[in-house]
Q: What sequence folds into this?
């Protein structure tokens, strides 16, 4: 079920029928209309929306509807700010975010989030893949890119990319800064916690032969250097996350198209 921010023509997000019912049962300022739900604050400002949604997210967490609380916020940009000719443009402070919200609540509200994903290639065509920690709330134990992470409030894609490579793979800033932007992939799918909608900003990094990634933040259980056929097998057997599979496929197809 789509929900709209005020008079916007395109949905801000998508709610499951059960989630819509929960919101309507605890909030009177959400309005049911023929095409979905509508909500906004009287002031229509970033600050008031963020405060109201933070309060709602905390209540949903306390009721057990939002899990995996991170105490980290994502900015939300409406399509009117972030879409151009059917493509998502780079989210920066130059574009007006409608509000910010705890990242754990994004799937409940079906909001578009942004993340960086780094493909770690060796010069001879092998791929460094991390295996997600078993304690991760999302996709535990699955293969992933060498580094990946959501874009928090106030951080640029480049800074997020470098930080994630340091935290998840122990890579130096000098090496991480050589990663090359390689476009974007947007994924949407129904998940246990609601609706997943994320634009993945793809970076490719050539990892030197004398460098081996080592996790620093406990989010990666191990790293594996996979041959191309092993990567294909991991994707086919669904032992790699959907997002990482899409990001690797995007990089390969992009390389073929520009060969």
A:
């Amino acid at each position: 079920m789509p929900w709209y921010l005020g008079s916007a023509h395109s949905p801000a997000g998508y709610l499951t029928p059960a989630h819509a019912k929960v919101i309507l049962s605890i909030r009177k300022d959400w309005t049911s209309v023929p095409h979905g739900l509508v909500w906004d604050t009287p002031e229509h400002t970033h600050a008031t929306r963020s405060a109201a949604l933070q309060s709602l997210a905390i209540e949903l967490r306390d009721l057990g509807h939002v899990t995996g609380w991170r105490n980290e916020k994502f900015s939300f940009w409406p399509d009117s700010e972030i879409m151009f000719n059917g493509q998502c443009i780079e989210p920066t402070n130059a574009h007006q975010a409608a509000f910010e919200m705890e990242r754990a609540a994004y799937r409940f509200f079906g909001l578009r989030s942004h993340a960086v994903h780094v493909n770690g290639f060796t010069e001879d065509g092998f791929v460094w893949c991390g295996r997600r920690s078993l304690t991760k709330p999302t996709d535990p134990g699955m293969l992933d890119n060498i580094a990946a992470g959501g874009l928090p409030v106030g951080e640029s894609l480049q800074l997020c990319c470098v930080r994630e490579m340091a935290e998840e793979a122990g890579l130096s800033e000098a090496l991480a800064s050589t990663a090359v932007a390689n476009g974007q992939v947007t994924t949407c799918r129904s998940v246990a916690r609601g609706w997943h909608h994320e634009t993945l900003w793809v970076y490719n990094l050539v990892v030197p032969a004398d460098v081996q990634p080592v996790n620093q933040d406990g989010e990666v259980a191990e790293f594996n250097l996979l041959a191309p056929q092993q990567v294909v097998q991991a994707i086919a057997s669904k032992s790699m996350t959907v997002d990482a599979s899409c990001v690797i496929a995007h990089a390969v197809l992009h390389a073929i198209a520009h060969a």
Observations:
- Helices lie at 17-26, 46-62, 79-82, 106-109, 157-169, 173-176, 228-236, 242-257.
- The mean pLDDT is 95.
- The chain has eight helices and 15 strands.
